[in-house]
Amino acid sequence: MTQPLNILRIDASARKDGSISRELADLYIDRIAERRAVRVETRDTSDGLPLVTQDWITANFTPDGDRTTDNRAVLATSDRLVDELKRNELLVISTPIYNFGIPAALKLWVDQVARAGLTFRYTDKGPVGLLDGKRAVILVASGGTKVGSDIDFATPYLRHVLGFIGITDVEIIAADQLMASGPDKIEQTKDQVRALAA
């Protein structure tokens, strides 16, 4: 029997309803599920994640064997987020572009999963990502920012961050500049999503 495809879905839009990026993720995962078994784990960053604080930094840089109960409590959410990444093969990120970049909620997720020794390590030749062998699909929506343009600071950042932790097989599909292009652009993007899922 074929093993299910393990998918980690990360949502970032502040909109729970009416979000184009969430709709694209729904479509992509549903289309994959029509062809094979999937197991989907969802992390909605808009529900809130902890900030990196002084206590977090202290705990993170304390060797694992020396961590106190308080240290472990501070890192508990981060540990769960890293475990989610490790146990899934495909990462699906749905995100809008807010003010030329990613939502603050998604940046909090990045800060919690970029952990030396867990998702990357330092070497004499520079940092090396530890999550190789995984794929990522980023489904983006924007009102005015053209994805791939000089004012798009969202998708290059996400591609770089994922590569930093070892995920270099990254596909980006964008429903961008929707304030100008509207429904036609959404339908074109959905066609791209269906093709990718196939």
UniProtKB/TrEMBL annotation:
A Pfam family assignment: Flavodoxin_2
This entry's comment on the bound cofactor is: Binds 1 FMN per subunit.
Task: Kindly state which keywords UniProt assigns to this record, in alphabetical order.
Answer: Flavoprotein, FMN, NAD, Oxidoreductase
Binding positions for FMN per the UniProt entry = S13, S19, I20, S21
What are the Flavodoxin-like fold domain coordinates in residue numbering? 6-194
Keyword NAD part of the UniProt annotation: yes
Q: Which domain of life is it from?
A: Bacteria
Which coenzymes or cofactors are required?
A: FMN
Family to which the UniProt record says this protein belongs: Belongs to the azoreductase type 1 family.
- Cite the PANTHER family for this sequence: FMN-DEPENDENT NADH-AZOREDUCTASE 1 (PTHR43741), FMN-DEPENDENT NADH:QUINONE OXIDOREDUCTASE (PTHR43741:SF2)
Report what the protein is called.
Answer: FMN dependent NADH:quinone oxidoreductase
What is the organism field in this record? Algimonas ampicilliniresistens
